[in-house]
Design goal:
With 294 residues, this protein is α/β, with parallel strands linked by helices. It has three domains: 81 residues, Winged helix-like DNA-binding domain superfamily/Winged helix DNA-binding domain (Arc Repressor Mutant, subunit A, Orthogonal Bundle); 89 residues, D-Maltodextrin-Binding Protein, domain 2; 104 residues, Periplasmic binding protein-like II (D-Maltodextrin-Binding Protein, domain 2), CATH 3.40.190.10. It has twelve helices and twelve strands. A five-stranded mixed sheet has the order 4-3-5-12-6, with helices on both faces. Strand 1 and strand 2 form a beta hairpin. Helix 1 packs across helix 2, helix 1 packs across helix 3 and helix 2 packs across helix 3. The model has no long low-confidence stretch (mean pLDDT 88).
């Protein structure tokens, strides 16, 4: 008969992809974790994993077992944590979902509204979201970066397309007969950005304006909504994803200074989940919602 601790260790190995990482997450020594896996293998009569150069790969029996126990164990952990804190905790909502705040508001929420899912959202950057997904703290995450871990599956659901935007007053100052004229006008102008690295911007300038980034970086704010607000206030121009600035464009608060959508490669965004969990009812319902036309 399989013991609950064995199953907890099995789920940790499934999610982490290695016995070493799973043992650390469980607070066990590696030999103890290996011993629990061996006990589980004897109890179910089949090996749940095959050890390889890239870590522990689930067998067909392992994938089946994970689908049977993962949700129940996750809910049990929440209840046990509540008991340890001196309270009885309600079972968690069906889906723990991670996203950036901007993407969640503009793209994820409208699709969720059309579903019957109950969701607890965690808003953070891609690196934190992927780490929490790997460790089992989240069930699905929406990211712009495709995780490299074997234990995570990424499904493409959309693309970020970029726009060069500023205030109507700035647009009235400019007349761009060519990209060269645009580059001349932008040189020395105030610029607002999400990060100091400016990966999209620094590729755009030399590729299409024939010069390195030459604007005056006036404000850096790690929130695209704050960057949009800065553009509206006239602090500078910026390159923003279209989903972030659509409302402000419609209201006439900002304008597109020059069309760049065909010049800047779109950035894909994906819904990511742990390998083998696409058949979970709540995960499957989310994937179905995002497979429909937006």
């Amino acid at each position: 008969m399989a013991r609950p601790d064995w199953l907890r260790t099995f789920v940790a190995v499934y999610r982490a992809g290695s016995v070493t990482d799973a043992a650390r997450l469980r607070g066990l020594s590696q030999p103890a974790a290996s011993q629990q896996l061996a006990g589980l293998e004897r109890a179910v009569g089949a090996a749940p994993f095959v050890r390889g150069p890239e870590g522990m790969t689930p067998t067909e029996r392992g994938r089946s077992l994970y689908g049977e126990v993962c949700s129940a164990l996750d809910q049990l952990e929440v209840v046990l944590a509540g008991l340890d804190a001196g309270r009885v905790t309600r079972a968690r909502p069906a889906l723990r979902l991670g996203s950036s705040a901007e993407l969640f508001s503009a793209e994820v929420l409208p699709r969720l509204a059309a579903s019957a899912l109950s969701v607890v959202a965690h808003l953070a950057d891609d690196a934190e979201l992927v780490a929490r997904l790997e460790h089992g703290d989240l069930d699905v995450v929406f990211t712009s970066a495709t995780p490299s871990r074997r234990s995570i599956t990424a499904q493409h659901v959309g693309d970020k397309r970029f726009m060069l935007v500023g205030t109507p007053q700035q647009a009235s100052e400019a007349g761009f007969g060519s990209l060269g004229h645009l580059g001349d006008w932008l040189t020395g102008k105030d610029w607002v950005a999400y990060s100091l690295e400016l990966p999209v911007t620094r590729r755009f300038w030399p590729s299409h304006l024939d010069r390195p980034f030459s604007a005056n970086l006036r404000l850096v704010a790690p929130d695209l909504r704050a960057v949009l607000g800065a553009v509206i206030c006239g602090l500078g121009v910026s390159m923003l994803p279209s989903f972030v600035c659509a409302g402000a464009l419609a209201d006439g608060q900002i304008v597109e200074l020059h069309p760049i959508a065909d010049l800047v490669a779109p950035e894909p965004w994906s819904v990511c989940f742990r390998q083998g969990e696409a058949s979970r009812p709540d995960v499957a319902a989310l994937l179905d919602a995002f497979s429909q036309p937006g």
